[in-house]
Amino acid sequence: MAGFGSGLARRLYRGEINVDFVGKQRLWYSLSAGLLLVSIAGLIINGLNLGVEFTGGSVFSFKAPTASIEQVRDTFTKQQVHQAIPQTAGDRWRVTTETLTESQGTQLQKAIATEYKLPQNQVDVDLIGASWGGQVSEKALIGLGVFMLAIILYLTMAFEWKMALAAIVALFHDLIITAGVYAWTDFEVTPATVLGFLTILGYSLYDAVVVFDMIKEVTAKLGTGSKMTYSQAANNALNHTLIRSLNTTLVAILPVAAILFIGTTLLGAGTLKDLSLALFVGMLVGTYSSLCVATPLLVTLKEREPKYQQLARRLASRGPGKEPSDAETREPVAAANGATATKRRKK
What we know:
The chain is α+β, with helices and mostly antiparallel strands. The chain folds into two domains: 22-49 and 133-341, Multidrug efflux transporter AcrB transmembrane domain (Multidrug efflux transporter AcrB transmembrane fold), CATH 1.20.1640.10; 57-128, Glutamyl-tRNA reductase, N-terminal domain (Beta Polymerase, domain 2, 2-Layer Sandwich), CATH 3.30.460. It contains twelve helices and six strands.
């Protein structure tokens, strides 16, 4: 079984197996549309569970390993605080409440210290105003906007605007689906989550750039006399980067999965789940979108160009029995790999 798996990997790496990603674009578009609809429905019905950093409120953190959630909630209720949300992180409690005044926060701090026999300075209190939370939200949106603008400019200069458009669509695809997962699971959205979103966008962009770079090299010399259409050349290039994309995703996602499933369940590292869930979902969706969304969309845009339409018509006129052979479809990729190797030797 292991020999079969390693043999399959070698054949994928050498380009001996071609998965028809581009030809199944309707399947990928339908799957993505379904995921997007479910995600948007979650955002509309449930909304995002924004953390106190965005909405404003008060956070109390203290150590009480033997306390129960009912006991902690009752401590706050006695002080006329009725919107307390207790969470455990190891042997510490993190309780979020509505916005309190400084005097109310100090009074509650004393009550917690008395209830659990702690020095008052061991009860941490953070009072976050709604205006400060609004500033955090504004800065997060500005950061996301700047990131998107930088991506568009880079891809347009390094490749072309159609590749930039395909990559941006894939990035929004990843962002909406990841946000939808947060909406349906009711995970709290914190500044760490925003960092996770930016990280997965960068990861998705990396995957798209690797694929687009190979497609650019393979299709650079396609003309009216070529033996394959743009779709066939792009699909062949995609298959040659497939094993690289899968290996990169596997290596990157293992430590993230460890943080998400082991850290948050066994070790009680609750503060890490906000970041790790975004990374885990985003890496999976990002790999899928670079293979099954960005590339098919790019092909759809490029096949509308007159020269590629003319090439497709000429090859179609040859009839179904005269399709290019596997050796012919591998020629452009082999040439591109040879050109890349030559450039490296010259450097």
